[in-house]
Amino acid sequence: MDHKIAPSILAADFANIQRDVEMINNSQADWFHIDIMDGVFVPNISFGFPVMEAIKKHAKKPMDVHLMIVNPDRYISSFKNAGADILTVHYEVCDHLHRTIQAIKDEGMKAGVALNPHTPVKLLKDVIQDLDLVCIMSVNPGFGGQKFIRNTFNKVKELKAMITEAEASTLIEIDGGVGTDNAKLLVDCGADVLVAGSSVFKAQDPITTIAQLKKLETIVKSV
Q1: Dihedrals φ, ψ of 95, to 5°?
Q2: For the range 196-201, what are the long-range contacts, defined as Cβ-Cβ under 8 Å and sequence gap of 24 or more?
Q3: Distance between CA atoms of 222 and 201, rounded to whole angstroms?
Q4: Contact indicator for 119, 96 with CB cutoff of 8 Å
Q5: Cα→Cα distances 140→41, 119, 133, 178, 190, Å
């Protein structure tokens, strides 16, 4: 299966959000990645339903919504109504993870679970067949532009082996510090979806950068 590219709107220019959304529409990107932060689970606050709804009006590709919030169960139906196609919750905040996964699916969305850098993938063994997606955080969640954590490669390999053993169809998504310098290595390890924020929106030509990520063109950054 060809890997997917999901540019992270968190790194977009909020003063020109429609322009950036239309850029993604016209690029080789597959999804929109939307980060929702509450200032409680992570030390940052992003945007909520009004901004999501505004993006949805112009987005022509699926909306991959990543909840970095406590008590996500309270808002599942609201995120569906705001336009989410994929809804990912954090393992670290879900006391009854299986129930949360089923609630997401009952709303007609694909269900994902995200893991912080310190959270081992083995903790998902009992629910892996119920998941459409696992998001491995390759930075500590909360802020864009952080340095990629290299142990992510090992976690991807371990998770891929678990998915294969379970004969599941779960996608592996990588979020944080993804760029043209590590995209090919991540896909080679088993990643299916690459979330790219700063590497896309801070590029001189975002559409070309997305194309490079899609083609897995490795561009080594000068020191």
Answers
A1: -75, -30
A2: 196/5, 196/6, 196/7, 196/8, 197/7, 197/8, 197/10, 197/11, 197/33, 197/144, 197/145, 198/11, 198/144, 198/145, 200/7, 200/8, 200/11, 201/7, 201/8, 201/11, 201/12, 201/13, 201/20
A3: 19
A4: no
A5: 11, 11, 19, 13, 21
Q: Is 194 within 8 Å of 5 (Cβ atoms)?
A: yes
Is the whole model's pTM more than 0.85, yes or no?
Answer: yes
Structural tokens at position 164: 């294969």
Look at the block and give the residue holding tokens 């959000």: 17
Cα 34–134–213 angle (5° rounding)? 60
The span from the CA of 32 to the CA of 118, in Å, is 26
- Look up tokens 């490795």; give the residue: 218
| Strand partners for 113 | 89, 134
Provide the pLDDT confidence category of residue 117 given band limits of 50, 70 and 90.
very high
pLDDT in tens, 133-191: 999 999 998 766 678 999 999 999 999 999 999 999 999 999 999 999 999 999 999 99
- Position of tokens 């998504």? 173
Just list the catalytic residues.
Answer: 35, 175
- Per-residue b or e along 64-102, where b marks 16 or more CB atoms closer than 10 Å to that residue's CB: bbbbbbeebeebbeebbebbbbbbbbbbbbbeebeebbe
Distances (CA, A) of 25 to 88, 118, 121, 174: 22, 34, 33, 21
Residue 180's contacts (CB-CB under 8 Å, 6 or more residues apart) are 199, 209, 212, 213, 217, 218, 219
